Amino acid sequence: IKNIRIALDGPAAAGKSTAAKKIAEKLGFIYIDTGAMYRTLTYKAIKNHINPKNEQELYDLLMNTVIELKPGKEGQLVFLDGHEVTSEIRQQEVTKNVSDVALHQLVRSEMVKRQQELVQNGGIVMDGRDIGTAVIPDAELKVFMSATAEERARRRFEEHKKQGIESDFQELKAEIEKRDHIDSTRAVSPLVKADDAIELDTTHMSITDVVNKVTEIAAERG
Ligand code: C5P
């Protein structure tokens, strides 16, 4: 299979990162989680007491920020200015604020620029919200993964339970729906299925089903 570029988009907790990791592993590709980049900026903004609504301050902060994504044993490791923040960027406080940080034009154009530099060589699976529409509009394969909010909240709840994190199902569902709403109604590259993306409703699909389906299509296109 050739070094194609696979763009994987969809709403929060649709299983994109889990699937993307496995697809990349199966194809020998590199996995890039772009949500981690927005989360890292959000984490630093919170530390620096910057309001997520302040576009200019966020942009200035980003221009003085080095975000590195490195492959690790259990998936991607994230570094902020040389320090590992892989688990820190998953904190509730970051999750609650990330969509407000990610809606700004200045922030997005810089992030998209950095992401485009990462995909130059192909052989990648990139997941996010605007990969097929803005980051790699000419990707060889675009997949839009969806699932009902109920099912996505259920998956996140189970994931937390496994990690020993206590959570409230209704609260999780509300947080997911709120993030989806901000992501899909923002003015700059909102979350939307690209016209030429293949839509996978994963509500009744297992991760293995999703991985097999995507790698099958990738083989046809590669
Ligand atoms: O993928 P994840 O849920 O970690 O993404 C966190 C947030 O980052 C999303 O809810 C969205 O606001 C933002 N994001 C984005 N564009 C991307 C990836 C993530 O706006 N390509």
TrEMBL record:
Keywords, sorted A to Z: ATP-binding, Cytoplasm, Kinase, Nucleotide-binding, Transferase
GO MF annotations in UniProt: kinase activity
rRNA-binding listed as a keyword: no
EC primary class: transferase
EC number: 2.7.4.25
Domain Cytidylate kinase: 6-218
Binding positions for ATP per the UniProt entry: 10-18
Major location (coarse): cytoplasm
Compartment(s) where it occurs, according to its Swiss-Prot or TrEMBL record: Cytoplasm
Keyword match Aminoacyl-tRNA synthetase: no
Pfam families xrefs: Cytidylate_kin
Catalytic activity: dCMP + ATP = dCDP + ADP; CMP + ATP = CDP + ADP
PANTHER family assigned: CYTIDYLATE KINASE, CYTIDYLATE KINASE/PANTOATE-BETA-ALANINE LIGASE
HAMAP family: Cytidyl_kinase_type1
Family membership: Belongs to the cytidylate kinase family. Type 1 subfamily.
Protein name: Cytidylate kinase
The encoding gene: cmk
